[in-house]
Amino acid sequence: MFEIAETGHVIDKETYDAEEPALRADLLDAQYALRENGRFPVIILIAGVEGAGKGETVNLLNEWLDPRHVHVAAFGPRTDEEAQRPPLWRYWMELPPRGSVGILFGSWYTEPIVNRATRRTRQTELDASIGEILRLEQMLVDEGVLLLKFWFHLSKKDQKERLEALDRDKKRTWRVTRTDWKQFAKYDEYVKASEHTLRFTSTTAAPWILVDAKDRRYRELTVGRTIRDALQRRLAAKQAEEPPTPQGPVVRAFDGRNALESIDLNRTVSDDEYKPVLDDLQERLGRLCSSKRFARVGAALALEGMDAAGKGGAIRRLTRALDVRQYEVIPVAAPTDEERARPYLWRFWRHLPRKGRFTIYDRTWYGRVLVERVEGFCSESDWRRAYDEINAFEEQLVESGVVVVKFWLQISKDEQLRRFQERETTRFKRFKITPEDWRNREKWDAYQAAAADMIERTSTKHAPWTLVPANDKKVARLDVLRTTVKALERALKGQER
Amino acid sequence: MFEIAETGHVIDKETYDAEEPALRADLLDAQYALRENGRFPVIILIAGVEGAGKGETVNLLNEWLDPRHVHVAAFGPRTDEEAQRPPLWRYWMELPPRGSVGILFGSWYTEPIVNRATRRTRQTELDASIGEILRLEQMLVDEGVLLLKFWFHLSKKDQKERLEALDRDKKRTWRVTRTDWKQFAKYDEYVKASEHTLRFTSTTAAPWILVDAKDRRYRELTVGRTIRDALQRRLAAKQAEEPPTPQGPVVRAFDGRNALESIDLNRTVSDDEYKPVLDDLQERLGRLCSSKRFARVGAALALEGMDAAGKGGAIRRLTRALDVRQYEVIPVAAPTDEERARPYLWRFWRHLPRKGRFTIYDRTWYGRVLVERVEGFCSESDWRRAYDEINAFEEQLVESGVVVVKFWLQISKDEQLRRFQERETTRFKRFKITPEDWRNREKWDAYQAAAADMIERTSTKHAPWTLVPANDKKVARLDVLRTTVKALERALKGQER
Predict the structure, then answer these.
(1) CATH class of B262-496
(2) CA angle, residues A185, A187, A189, in degrees to nearest 5
């Protein structure tokens, strides 16, 4: 496929000089229209072979555009903060907010291609990375991102000439490192790994733009025009219409029963039984989390449930067993403006725990398919695609070593009423009950249906849901503790190998 | 001083049970009033000896307060992200926003005391840390933070008993580590270093609250009551009045001349002279930044100047010499809501570069004493104290190894007019000129006076201002490059030792 970028395009100085000022002005106009519009971000991905002028292009874009509203992110070796999180995390953190332009210099493509070209990974591992990239890019596009991916190509002969020229140029000789020549020695392997990767990631929504990089003027005009045209087209498009709603309802069992109904809300435990089991589980949890192996793992607990189902109480029974230095409880608050300007998972990504930490989410990313779905805060196509996005996200967490445990705390409608009334009359519980809780209660059935769908669609092998009967608070607390302890025991056993 | 926390306070169960529910409800009420008020944050610092119940207290506060609006930050060994920034950086990052409560478990006190008690540092180093802490806390208090510092004390005998008891308790034995016993062996050294530190950091604005930690109930009620009373008092205080304006104007030379007038705006450079010097400086800059020693240093460049003074052009002459992967240009944008809820320096702290990075600030933290002062966006006492706060901040940057270079680009009023008019007529420069620029121009003298004060108050030995005549853009660009290159050469030479 790279042959098409070796046809030797050349643009002479006159043509360039005639076109450049208008292009530059158009780009600025488009950038300002983007800021005013404010409905989507632009991500420009700059990739390709060394010596092909990628760095110069980034500098040029900073000159052509208003650099105050362009964020350039470049990626080197991973810091330990980055190494302790899923591989894509550091890219997630650099996503630009709506209305602005982000340039990614080096990106999620670099490591998979380098690792394959240098035979540090097998073909199947490259293909697995490609799968992850496809899902990420699909999500970005679904979230409205205008994603422009440029691949700068040079033929083997041209790359050699270019590196030699840089070597000779005393102003730039420091730019050609031993690594660049080492990479050049593996030119064919790089081309092979790149071609494979590009072919499978050139999608309709985010196709690769191959740039014949030999001629500077051709390269610059190609990049500039492509960005201008894509931006203008997107800005001219009508206010993004609601995409067509996916066909048909979520599949339901035809007897109308769902996962929630299998929960036995009548389970109880006596005080006498409760105390010793609680002590035992807390002791085991404390020991597990203070073991050295835990530092290589970490845990993420997700608690969801109907209002007043007892999430807070269950969380406190967990945290009492833990050292304050190692756990964190993350409540879901209203998104800040920085969060609203980015994909909805971003506000969870940014709080992702490091290894060796015990992180408890009091309500979670599932808000997308619960409250946002029921209250209509997002479109139907948004919450429908969220199931797969969430599954992909959790899978990445698990693959990076984190133990993910998810709980749905279920209570009966009567029990909720009883607890609401108690909250209203107990002085230090008043803060737990708001008019919103009463409004949500009126939509009990819709929330239950959404929860049932959620459990069916997101109970995966790597991150299954645990359904917890919570009419008896003691039962719920023990179930949460027991499941957590068992999941950790299994994971730490795995670490022994 | 610790004797007063060894008097053996004991509270019996009846007294505790009688008081606890009301205290708890009061605390919640105060917390909700704080959220509604939203004008200041509360920082609760939990420090003291091991085994004194610090962790339990944090858990208790999470139970008494609504934990969804309490953020607990605990600090362990530094990650490499943290190690590459000033020592206080990781605490800055955890400051709670206005309207909420942050609990710091372990804090800026831990390392200085531990290092001194274990003789890793000298007394003078401890005193230097104390100085930094005093400045930080003064700034926090000036920014409106309600800072409550609790020190949990146990006598030597009581600490020994407590550690032994924890060791015996099979549910908690994992909590007592070898480190705790090692620390205990140095009890007297710890007490000495702690007492010294506490004495000098118990200020009127943020006094230490010594807690006799032996009796659990006494400890809990003391902490709870203190927080409640402090919060209630602060909430009841009238809307923070403007603090009395400091006496007298900023000192001025009595001939009315200032630093800016010493700048020779008539300096020019010919095209023939310009090009070879530019090439040479860019080459030197590129070499310096790609040297290995640079990775241990890093650079922060601050550019300020009148509108249209040519900051952008000067920045581009710098970045062209650099590898895209190692520099970052940070433009000052309007603060986000997360930033507005924290001390004004926070939005600069969060973008602080790691070592080995070249960070260029296009306008800076000096906005506080320039635009915010002139336009009245902050109170007079706010910008007056900013000089010292900024000096302290830059000193910490320099001490952590970063080369700080600051430029004021000066142009004449006529030259500004000429450039404004040119911007209005050149299509791709239009974005650079806004009605705000014209409004600012009307306040030319006020901006000049503010700049002169700024330069006098913040041109320090570790981070001096360089005054750049910018009527001739080429002169300005060479001056900025030359000063940067020289500062880096000096710093890297220092690294050779």
Answers:
(1) alpha beta
(2) 110
- Quick check: helix, strand or coil at residue A120? coil
- Report the side by side order of strands in the sheet with B403-410: B327-331, B358-362, B299-305, B403-410, B465-469
Contact A171 B337 (CB under 8 A): no
Query: Domain A259-496 sits in which CATH superfamily?
Result: P-loop containing nucleotide triphosphate hydrolases (3.40.50.300)
Among B312, B326, B338, beta carbon nearest to A67: B312
Task: Report ipTM for this prediction.
Answer: 0.79
**How many other CB atoms are there within 10 angstroms of residue B492's CB atom?**
18
Nearest to B431 among A59, A66, A290 (CB): A66
Determine whether the interchain pair B74/A279 forms a contact, defined as Cβ–Cβ distance below 8 Å. no
Chain A neighbors of B106, CB-CB under 8 A: 325
Q: Where in chain A is the domain with CATH 3.40.50.300?
A: 2-236, 259-496
Residue A290 has pLDDT above 90, yes or no: no
User: Out of B58, B67, B362, whose CB is closest to A68?
Assistant: B362
Which residues in chain B are classed under CATH 3.40.50.300? Answer: 2-236, 262-496
Q: How many CB atoms lie within 10 A of CB A181?
A: 14
Q: Tens of pLDDT along A106-120?
A: 899 999 999 999 999
Number of alpha helices (DSSP H) and beta strands (DSSP E) in chain B: 20, 10
Is there a contact between B331 and A67 if contact means CB atoms under 8 Å apart?
yes
Considering the domain delimited by A2-236, tell me its CATH architecture.
3-Layer(aba) Sandwich (3.40)
> In angstroms, rounded to a whole number, what is the distance separating the alpha carbons of residues A210 and A3?
10
Contact between chains at A286 and B171 (C-beta distance less than 8 A): yes
HSE of B473 in the Cβ direction (CA atoms, 13 Å)? 15
Residue type for position A336: T
Nearest CA in chain B to A74: B325
- Portion of chain A with pLDDT greater than 70, in percent: 95
The owner of tokens 């189902």 is A309
